């Protein structure tokens, strides 16, 4: 269904540039998420008749319409969202609670892929919206991955390298506990506030927890 959705849905997905501008223009994270879903809904309306016509005709027209609309509605929603809160010890001895999220929008084609961003303003709704956009981008160019996204609500410039390593490794452990990471399941990538350094810490943590047999 995602392959079928891709060509015509470009109208709605490419307009996502406007979605991304909402954050910088002072819009709330909820508005960003709702706007992303709104573009998807507009694209879905354009596709319903075509998808119904192409659906196997062994069922009646009404049943085909119900099934197509049901599939389109299921594609819109995030499959899973993991929210974790964990403590780290700062260099000065203080303890701080870190909030983080990983959204897996679609497992229709695996593995999921998507960046991990470190930003003080990132929220659960942000990662859900960004994960859905990743699914649609992959579908548009027929890349065989589902969309995912992660966010950790910190300002990376306010932490030392040692503290950032603690945060990154602990988040990787939390992802591994819940099967939210792995070469056949979910593959993270750099995003805002992260780089190859953080990806190296994640790989090392994954190998030391799951091993290299996966």
Automatic annotation (TrEMBL):
SUPFAM superfamilies: Aminoacid dehydrogenase-like, N-terminal domain (SSF53223). It comes from the Eukaryota. It holds the Pfam family ELFV_dehydrog_N. PROSITE patterns: GLFV_DEHYDROGENASE. GO terms for biological process: L-glutamate catabolic process. GO terms for cellular component: mitochondrion. Residues 81-206 form the Glutamate/phenylalanine/leucine/valine/L-tryptophan dehydrogenase dimerisation domain. InterPro entries: Aminoacid_DH-like_N_sf, Glu/Leu/Phe/Val/Trp_DH_dimer, Glu/Leu/Phe/Val_DH_AS. GO terms for molecular function: glutamate dehydrogenase (NAD+) activity. The keyword Oxidoreductase applies. Keywords: Oxidoreductase. Belongs to the Glu/Leu/Phe/Val dehydrogenases family. This is Glutamate/phenylalanine/leucine/valine/L-tryptophan dehydrogenase dimerisation domain-containing protein. It comes from Macrostomum lignano.
């Amino acid at each position: 269904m995602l392959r079928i959705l891709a060509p015509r849905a470009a109208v709605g997905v490419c307009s996502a540039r406007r979605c991304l501008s909402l954050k910088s223009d002072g819009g709330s994270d909820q508005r960003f998420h709702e706007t992303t879903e709104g573009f998807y809904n507009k694209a879905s309306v354009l596709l319903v008749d075509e998808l119904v016509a192409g659906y196997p005709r062994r069922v009646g027209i009404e049943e085909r319409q119900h099934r197509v609309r049901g599939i389109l509605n299921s594609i819109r929603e995030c499959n899973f969202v993991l929210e974790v809160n964990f403590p780290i010890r700062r260099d000065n001895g203080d303890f701080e609670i870190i909030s983080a999220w990983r959204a897996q929008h679609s497992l229709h084609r695996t593995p999921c892929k998507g960046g991990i961003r470190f930003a003080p303003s990132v929220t659960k709704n942000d990662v859900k919206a960004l994960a859905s956009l990743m699914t649609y981008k992959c579908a548009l160019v027929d890349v065989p991955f589902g969309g995912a996204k992660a966010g950790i609500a910190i300002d990376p410039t306010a932490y030392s390298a040692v503290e950032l390593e603690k945060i990154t490794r602990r988040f990787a452990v939390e992802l591994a506990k819940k099967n939210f990471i792995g070469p056949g399941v979910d593959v993270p990538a750099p995003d805002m506030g992260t780089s190859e350094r953080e990806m190296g810490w994640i790989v090392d943590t994954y190998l030391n927890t799951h091993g290299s047999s996966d």
